[in-house]
From TrEMBL:
Residues 687-714 have a biased composition (Basic and acidic residues). Residues 144-647 form the Serine/threonine-protein phosphatase 4 regulatory subunit 3-like central domain. This is Serine/threonine-protein phosphatase 4 regulatory subunit 3. One of its GO terms (molecular function) is protein phosphatase activator activity. Residues 5-101 form the PP4R3 EVH1-like domain. GO terms for biological process: DNA damage response. It comes from the Eukaryota. InterPro entries: ARM-type_fold, EVH1_PP4R3, P4R3-like_central_dom, PH-like_dom_sf, PP4R3-like. It comes from Culter alburnus (Topmouth culter). Residues 715-728 have a biased composition (Polar residues). Regulatory subunit of serine/threonine-protein phosphatase 4. Residues 670-684, 771-784 have a biased composition (Acidic residues). Residues 670-795 are annotated as: Disordered. Residues 729-758 have a biased composition (Low complexity).
């Protein structure tokens, strides 16, 4: 299997007309005596598995392209291609295919897939009619030539015969010479005919013609012909763009002349396909499939040639990380890597793995830290694209790198923190870059791609790392924009609501951060639980329910809904102690009679609590808020909560209270758990203050706008008959129902104690406790279904 002549790459054409790499192996041609047939087989070089076994049918049309490609179709929508490493191997297999089909190996295609009626007509024609007679290449015959080229496009066999005639007589070069003559003499009609001719020749979809048309001495004349579209009043100036505007930049001089020529050719052919040629219609979409293949295999060859140049990438990285490199030069280097990574997507999987591992070994991630910290917007965007290729290729590789950084760098320059800060400080009003970076962060912290057995330690170690070194940077804008205003209020004066962002761009950013935090609640366990409780994060998030931007209020509500959806009694106890339903109820009452998404989302939250029978929350809601909610009758949710509450109260009054536990035991467990975090308190607080300062620098310009907006903002008024005031401290919230305030620790811990199994809490005036022992005493009426929400008649 060491014979490189037989080494090939196998490709298949997918539904989007893109070639997909199926692997590398060695091809052979074998004859089976029993079946009396010859087959092509490709055996994988990695594990010896069979990649392809294809019978050579006498009716199949095989096509040879670019000296090293053999392409054919085995079904109506199943195209295959073999790309040979050496021309000699391609010629050898081509000869055997032609031998089976009884064809001359000098042909580029063995036969065309034509329908039976056309084949019969073709066989009935006299022998001399098989040859396409081309008119003399003269200005007065251009209209006739154009009609001939256009007329053959509907017939596969005639397209093949015309292509053979054009190649064998050197007709393309004669046409291009005639183009120069017509352009010099400003023969506009002749130039319009040449446009139709060249466009038709491209639609012949023959690789042999492309090799002539896209050669160095012909391609610019081909572009020139395509400038004179008869539908345009004035011709386009594509050649001027390609020669004067588009500049070929060599970040490092390329000494290989063949590589330079291949790069120029690929760019120009891509320009012809994407810019010059009109978008093909439904009937023409397959006419340029060979052109797409031509570009695809050119890109594969370019990446392979650059990889084989050992000195090239080393020199590029040396200049990229050199502090003496000028900003303009570094910008060009980053743009080169962006395009290089894009081209690498054409490589087969094992070669692409080797490619990215090479970049990692050369130091692409430390280099990205440098360039992502630059002020140049274009450089940041290009670096973000490169980072996305790396994260998509291997999140574990990126995680492994960032976990090694704290040993040699400050928190401020950690790669993930650099990414977070770029997301926070995105200057785009639509936050396009921030959305992309948020998606990458989500991939990195997603436990789903850490589930391999070897990655168990990775999951625990990386999440501990992220919450210790990075989470305070991510939440800095959220905490900064939900800070409480410490003002001494005289008796009877209105309480000032916490600061709530009215700037639209800030609101968008906070929505992105909340989306990421909601993802953490769903997929992380004790890490995010520690952080929420020690930072009192849910209280800060719920101040955003006051925002004039409904989408931000919904994000805050969704965050709380995910927490309640876990049905974790530690979370429930935290919500009760902090009186955290208060801002949600206020938002419902402020919304008044409006029948909108905010109304529905809040109702769904309480409906979930009722259906799931979360007793500690039901007791808290009914004890503290039922008077404000009992007037809402267009849904039965709140009456249902009251009914559940009364049923549990009645059950306890019948003597089932013997199963209750003293609420103090739960509080003591919780305090012990949260107090474990005090050792790391100073580190986390210092990091938070630093990240808050960094964020403050970016927000200075926004604060002036925000202050101006607030002066003009109408004051919110309560539309319901009952309105609460959001208590701004946990102690104040708990003073009303006699429970002790939560601990004041403000740091997360990566090693919390596990919640006691089966432990629940007694809250409010009546302790509602659910133990497994109670199950046999449940009544059937506890399983009542939630009534369907009735449409509101008035708005």
């Amino acid at each position: 299997m060491s014979d490189t002549r037989r080494r090939v790459k196998l490709y298949t054409l997918n539904e989007d007309r893109q070639w997909e790499d199926r692997g590398t192996g060695h091809v052979s041609c074998s004859y089976e005596d029993t079946e009396k047939e010859t087959s092509l087989t490709v055996t994988a070089e990695s594990d010896g598995s069979l990649l392809l076994e294809s019978k050579i049918n006498t009716s199949t049309a095989y096509q040879k392209q670019q000296d090293t490609l053999i392409v054919w179709s085995e079904a109506e929508n199943y195209d295959l291609a073999l790309s040979f490493q050496e021309k000699a191997g391609c010629d050898e297999i081509w000869e055997k295919i032609c031998q089976v089909q009884g064809k001359d190996p000098s042909v580029e295609i063995t036969q065309d897939p034509i329908d039976e009626s056309e084949e019969e007509r073709f066989e009935e024609m006299p022998e001399t009619a098989h040859l396409v007679e081309l008119p003399p290449c003269e200005p007065e015959r251009l209209e006739e030539i154009a009609e001939l080229v256009t007329s053959v496009l509907s017939s596969p066999i005639r397209r093949e015969k015309l292509a053979l005639a054009l190649v064998s007589t050197g007709y393309i070069r004669k046409l291009l010479q005639l183009f120069r003559t017509c352009e010099d003499s400003e023969h506009r009609e002749g130039l319009h005919h040449l446009y139709e001719i060249v466009r038709g020749v491209l639609f012949l979809n023959k690789a042999t013609l492309f090799e002539v048309m896209f050669s160095d001495d012909c391609i610019m004349d081909v572009v020139g012909c395509l400038e004179y579209d008869p539908a345009l009043v004035q011709p386009k100036r594509h050649r001027e763009f390609l020669t004067k505007t588009a500049k070929f930049k060599e970040v490092i001089p390329i000494t290989d002349s063949e590589l330079r020529q291949k790069i120029h050719q690929t760019y120009r052919v891509q320009y012809i396909q994407d810019i010059i040629l009109p978008t093909p219609s439904v009937f023409e979409e397959n006419f340029l499939s060979t052109l797409s293949s031509f570009i695809f295999f050119n890109k594969v060859e370019i990446v392979s040639m650059l990889q084989e140049d050992e000195k090239f990438l080393t020199e590029v990285f040396a200049q990229l990380t050199d502090e003496a490199t000028e900003d303009d030069k570094r910008r060009e280097l980053v743009n080169f890597f962006k395009e290089f990574c894009a081209f690498s997507q054409t490589l087969q999987p094992q070669n692409r793995d080797a490619f990215f591992k090479t970049l990692a070994n050369l130091g692409i991630l430390p280099a990205l830290e440098i360039v992502m910290g630059m002020d140049d917007v274009q450089v940041k965007a290009a670096a973000t694209d490169i980072f996305s290729y790396l994260v998509e290729f291997s999140p574990s590789m990126v995680r492994e790198f960032v976990m090694q950084e704290p040993q040699q760098a400050d928190d401020d320059v950690l790669l993930i923190n650099v990414v977070i800060k770029q997301m926070i400080c995105d200057s785009d009003p639509e936050l396009g870059g921030a959305v992309q970076l948020m998606g990458l962060l989500r991939t990195l912290i997603d436990p789903e791609n850490m589930l391999a057995p070897a990655s168990k330690a990775e999951k625990s170690e990386f999440l501990s790392f992220f919450y210790k070194y990075c989470m305070h940077v991510l939440t800095a804008p959220l905490l900064a924009n939900t800070a409480e205003e410490d003002q001494d209020l005289s008796e009877g004066s209105a309480r000032v609501n916490p600061v709530c962002p009215d700037n639209f761009q800030t609101a968008q950013l906070l929505a992105l951060i909340l989306e990421l935090l909601t993802f953490c609640v769903e997929h992380h366990t004790y890490h995010i639980k520690n952080y929420i409780m020690t930072k009192d994060l849910l209280r800060r998030v719920l101040t955003l329910m006051n925002s004039k931007h409904t989408f931000l209020a919904l994000c805050a509500l969704r965050f709380m809904r995910r927490i309640i959806g876990l049905k974790d009694e530690y979370y429930n106890r935290y919500i009760v102690k902090g009186n955290l339903f208060e801002p949600v109820i206020n938002a419902l009452l402020d919304n008044g009679t409006r029948y909108n998404l905010l109304n529905s989302a809040i109702i769904e939250l309480f409906e979930f609590i009722k259906v799931e029978d979360i007793r500690s929350l039901i007791a808290h809601i009914v004890d503290n808020f039922y008077k404000a909610l009992e007037s809402i009758e267009y849904v039965q949710t709140f009456k249902g909560l009251k009914g559940r509450y009364e049923q549990e109260k009645e059950r306890q009054s019948r003597g089932l209270s013997r199963y209750r536990r003293d609420a103090r035991s739960f509080e003591e467990d919780e305090d012990m758990w949260l107090n474990d975090d005090e050792e790391e308190e100073d580190v986390s607080d210092t990091g938070f203050e630093k990240s808050k300062s960094d964020y403050g620098k970016f927000m200075e310009s926004e604060k002036a706008k925000e202050s101006q907006d607030k002066e003009n903002q109408p004051k919110r008024t309560t539309t319901g008959s009952f309105k609460f005031t959001f208590s701004h401290s946990a102690a104040a919230a708990n003073a009303s129902n006699g429970s002790k305030p939560p601990p004041s620790s403000s740091s997360s811990s990566s090693k919390p104690a596990a919640p006691p199994s089966g432990q629940t809490a007694r809250t409010g005036l009546v302790g509602l406790v659910d133990y497994p022992d109670d199950e046999d005493e449940e009544e059937d009426d506890d399983e009542e279904q939630s009534p369907r929400k009735r449409p509101r008649l008035g708005s």
